[in-house]
Every structure is written in C-alpha cells, then in structure tokens.
Design brief:
The chain is mostly helical. Helix content is 82%, strand content 5%.
C-alpha cells in the first residue's frame, strides 16, 4: 500500500496524503486547546461568581424543607390513625344505613296495610318505598366506595412517606455549606 490512504466517499476513491492527515490532527489539537481554555475560563467565572455556593445552599435548604414536610405528613398520618377517624366514620355510615333500612321496612309494612284502604295511595307508597330502598343502597355503596378510596389513599401516602423517610435516613449525611458573605 502507498503512503497515502484511500477512502471511499459517495462512490469514488479519494486519496488523503500524510500532510492532510497531519493538518487535520493539528486542527483537532487546536480545537481541543480552545475548548479546554474556554472550559477553564467558564469554571473560573462560575467559581468567582459564587454560583456554586448559592446552588449548594439552595439544595441544602430544599433538603431541609423536604425533611420537615415529610415529618409533618408523617405526624399527621399518625394522628389520623390514632384518632380512629376512619373507623368512626365507617360506624356512622353503617348506623345510617341501618336506620334507612328500618325506615324502608316500615314504609313497606305501611304499603302492605294501605291497599285495602286506598288502592291509589298503595301504588304511591310502594313507589316511594322502592325509591327509598334504592337510594339507601346507593348511599351505602357510595359511602363504602369513598371509605375504600380514603383508606387506599392513606395507605399509599403512608407507603410514600415511609419510602421517602427511608431514603432520607439512608442517604449520605450532607456537609453543612458555609453561607456566602453577601447573604445575611
């Protein structure tokens, strides 16, 4: 093979001389030097401006705020769990449904007695009893669904809090960052 290399470009042979290769290598070296110089100047400018210190302080403040928020959420979740609010709500819903069921039964009994006295009223009472029964069942279903949703959300939130708490506990301890003299 000769001292020059062959390279195929768009279907034709093109010869590159050693001088061209050397020139291209020099150009690349020049670009590397210029980029390195620009990067060095940029780092120096960023360092002198105090931007890195500001960024570190902002990250530290965000971490502290996240930790405090997580603790508040955890405390609130514990208070809700300990206060048995969900159990009390479920109990109240059950009592309401029982009372509605008793009302519907009483209306049905009344509807059975009325046909002899007033056939027109009987139909009206039956329709009312059926509507009340449907409404009571729907209310019971809706209340049950809402309670399930609340319980699921609380469980999901508790798991998220637990995960984020573990992440905060397992994370490396952060060094405190000195504040820049320009900040009070």
């Amino acid at each position: 093979m000769s001292s020059s290399k062959k390279r195929k470009r768009s279907g034709r042979d093109e010869k590159i001389s050693p001088e061209e290769v050397a020139k291209k290598v020099k150009d690349v070296a020049k670009i590397i030097r210029e980029t390195s110089s620009t990067a060095r100047d940029t780092v120096k400018t960023i360092h002198e401006s105090g931007a890195i210190t500001e960024l570190a302080e902002a990250v530290q403040e965000a971490a502290v705020a996240t930790k405090d928020t997580t603790k508040e959420i955890s405390d609130t979740a514990k208070e809700i769990r300990n206060s048995h609010v969900t159990a009390g709500t479920a109990s109240a819903v059950e009592e309401t449904v029982k009372a509605a069921t008793e009302t519907v039964k009483a209306a049905e009994d009344t509807a059975r007695q009325v046909p002899k006295a007033a056939p027109e009223t009987t139909r009206t009472v039956r329709k009312g009893a059926m509507k009340a029964s449907k409404a009571a069942k729907a209310t019971f279903r809706q209340a049950g669904n809402r309670l399930r949703k609340v319980a699921i959300k609380k469980t999901i939130n508790a798991k998220k809090i637990k995960r984020s708490t573990k992440k905060l506990k397992s994370g490396k301890r952060k060094r405190t960052v000195k504040r820049s003299p320009t900040k009070p």
